[in-house]
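## retry 2 of 3
previous attempt timed out at serialization; input unchanged, resubmitting
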Amino acid sequence: MKPIYKTAKLIRQRIENIPVGEPFSPTLLLECGTRASVDQNLSRLIKAGVIERVARGIFVRPEINRFVGKVMPEPLKVAETVAKSVGAIVQVHGAEAARCLELTTQVPTQSVFMTSGPSKRIRMGKMEIRLQHTCQRKLMLAGRPAGLALSAMWYLGKTEVTPTLIEKIRHKLGAKEFEILKSATSSMPAWMSDAIFRNEQKITHV
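## retry succeeded, writing output
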């Protein structure tokens, strides 16, 4: 088999192993060939209708819903894919994290994520996804419920993060995840770790 056809076959096989609706970047395919050959094959697969470009440098095997047609990937998955392509991580923005944990009733109007990588704006159809660079300290425990709570606390700030709010977080996370959150107190600002400590003291004396 000629190298050009072997590369095309390897790329096609690799893409077929990616779940439908799961976004991916060309960096995932570089083990199959050069960047130029990967880009060429991606263009061919787009024309053939096998994959779609959902944002610059982000592709997907389209998921089809019989009621609404093509379903776009979740913004978080797109953000994670973009970040992973440059060796970075992402965390849900504190405003969305607070909403998910029912610590606020406000609903964010934009898809914003915190990242260890560079700040970036991603256009996905009519939607804009924003990646905002932030310090590693605010990205601890990213990708798990305890990290969601940490992000929410950073967003809510010193005046809102009280022992009462910590109690709400405790119930939302469950015992195991709350212990993981507590394990990160050494990297938290004093006002945050103090709120957790005071909540622990309150429970101990009940």
